[in-house]
Design a protein that fits this description.
This protein is α+β, with helices and mostly antiparallel strands. 17% of the residues lie in helices and 34% in strands. The chain contains 2 helices and 8 strands, in the order βαβββββββα. The strands form 2 sheets. Strands 2-1-8-3-4-5 form a 6-stranded mixed beta sheet. It is elongated and about 50 Å long. The mean pLDDT is 93.
């Protein structure tokens, strides 16, 4: 299931790290490439592994009662523009996948 939560890296990050796709994490900055919110860029606020969706900061919808909720987006529809490298596990994944 974690494997299905991967997203493409931007061209700059591909050249820098030598990896094309990585699993999305909370704290990554992404650009939405498809759908109603295409072109929007923001930080990942939540990753829902059960529903296989992510929530991006600023991508909200107003409900009928006036409250706002995040719009769930599939990770394959986004491109990672900035990585969150705060933990050692992500660095190990990059080193392992490097070509």
């Amino acid at each position: 299931m974690y494997k299905e939560m991967t997203a493409r890296l931007s061209d700059i990050l591909i050249k820098e790290y030598g990896v094309k796709r990585l699993p999305v994490r909370k704290g990554d900055n992404v650009m939405i490439m498809r759908g109603d919110y295409a072109g929007h860029e923001g930080e990942i606020v939540e990753v829902n592994l059960k529903k296989r969706r992510i929530h991006v900061d600023g991508v909200t919808r107003t409900k009928a009662d006036g409250s706002t909720v995040f719009v769930p987006i599939h990770p394959s529809k986004v491109m990672i523009t900035k990585l969150n490298l705060s933990d050692k596990w992500r660095k190990k994944i990059i080193e392992r996948r490097k070509k």
